[in-house]
Write a structure and sequence with these properties.
By secondary structure, the chain is an all-beta fold. It contains one helix and 21 strands. The chain is globular. The model has no long low-confidence stretch (mean pLDDT about 85).
């Protein structure tokens, strides 16, 4: 894997080889480190550390067994939530003042979603809540359920558009800074904003195709969208 770290006017490129597929990355402000997730492991990366600077594996964070695949992660203060593929489990870890990672609770899919739901794609946190992107069984439509910090459902989401099928579980969830959420359906290339009251709004832009990644500016006012076929990077202002 190649990490590109931009430090003000300097660009640092780190070549790092490891076993596994990179599936998610986030910044954990409480410990000032990047958290890198592969299908079976978690790594920490300190961008301020002098060279040679490579990510460090957290040995105490492991999936239930090797048959399970990790899919997404998100920090909440000193807690880290890690979602398994289709939300079979969500693990809650807490990092101690001595930098020990301790498993606080392992939530099951049945605790977090409804019986007929196919699964949970992403777990994401903002300053107040945890949000889960869930694919429904009957119509394959996505919804965003809002949870409290102890994973009690605060609000059931409104259904948006559908995925391709239950096996192609492709979407993306991004928290905005004002208790809104940005959701991307990779199958339809549609982007949705869910507001503070849970109301959904489709972003009307029909020319966005083959979305592969999205990043939102720290203040939540702009988003950068990377597409393929053709390969392009476009900047949009969020209302």
């Amino acid at each position: 894997m190649i990490l590109v770290c931009i430090k003000r006017s300097q660009i640092e490129i780190i070549l790092f080889l490891f076993k596994g597929i990179l599936v998610d990355i986030c910044w954990m402000s409480s410990i000032s480190l990047f958290i890198i997730l592969t299908i079976h492991s978690v790594y920490l990366y300190d961008p301020l550390k002098s060279s040679p600077n490579i990510p460090v594996k957290v040995e105490s964070i492991k999936p239930l067994d090797r048959s399970h695949v990790l899919a997404s992660l998100s920090p909440f203060d000193r807690d880290l939530y890690i979602n398994y593929h289709k939300g079979i489990h969500i693990d809650q870890y807490r990092v101690s003042p001595t930098s020990e990672w301790i498993l606080q609770k392992r939530y099951s899919k049945s605790e977090l979603s409804e019986t007929k739901d196919i699964g949970i794609r992403d777990v994401r946190c903002d300053s107040q809540h945890i949000c889960l992107s869930i694919m429904q069984h009957d119509d394959l439509k996505w919804r965003l359920d809002l949870m409290s910090r102890d994973m009690v459902r605060v609000r059931r989401g409104v259904a948006m558009d559908a995925g391709e099928n239950q096996h192609k579980f492709f979407s993306m969830l991004i928290p905005l800074q004002d208790q809104r959420w940005l959701f991307v359906n990779w199958f339809t290339n549609k982007l949705w904003i869910v507001d503070q009251q849970g109301k959904t709004r489709l972003i009307k832009e029909t020319k966005i195709k083959n979305i592969r990644n999205i990043s939102v500016s720290p203040d939540g006012s702009y988003m950068a969208i990377r597409t393929e076929k053709p390969s392009a990077l476009k900047i949009y202002k969020l209302d």
